[in-house]
Specification:
- With 107 residues, this protein is α+β, with helices and mostly antiparallel strands.
- It is built from two helices and five strands; from the N terminus they run ββββαβα.
- It has one domain.
- The longest helix has 11 residues.
Length: 107
């Protein structure tokens, strides 16, 4: 299971990174959010703290999943421009195109 998720908050049309364990609902369409300062929220995200009873629930749409914080931040930057992260792949190395060899028949 990938520990970080990039989500879009449907009420404010903003995107952010959350730990996977903050998602709830059968389709992972809700998330818990701590009622804290920005610094404390960032710490909760990094540490992957379990949601508490007093945390607010928000409707979200999952845009992408990541194995670590660095990959999640990369996807977050992309999500700030576009919301099509489900199909986003890391850039692959370009392959060299092979050209057909011409055979010359000499008589």
């Amino acid at each position: 299971m990938l520990p970080f998720v990039v989500v879009e908050f449907l009420d404010s049309w903003t995107v952010d990174i959350i730990p996977r364990n903050w998602l709830t609902g059968p389709e992972e369409e809700e998330c818990h959010w701590p009622p804290s300062s920005t610094v404390n929220v960032d710490r909760c995200v990094r540490e992957g703290r379990d949601p508490q009873e007093d945390w607010t629930k928000f409707q979200v749409r999952v845009l992408g999943k990541a194995v670590n914080g660095k990959a999640a931040r990369t996807k977050l930057r992309k999500a700030e421009v576009t919301s099509d992260l489900q199909t986003y792949k890391e850039p692959e190395r370009a392959k060299r195109k092979k050209s057909k060899t011409n055979h010359v028949i000499q008589s």
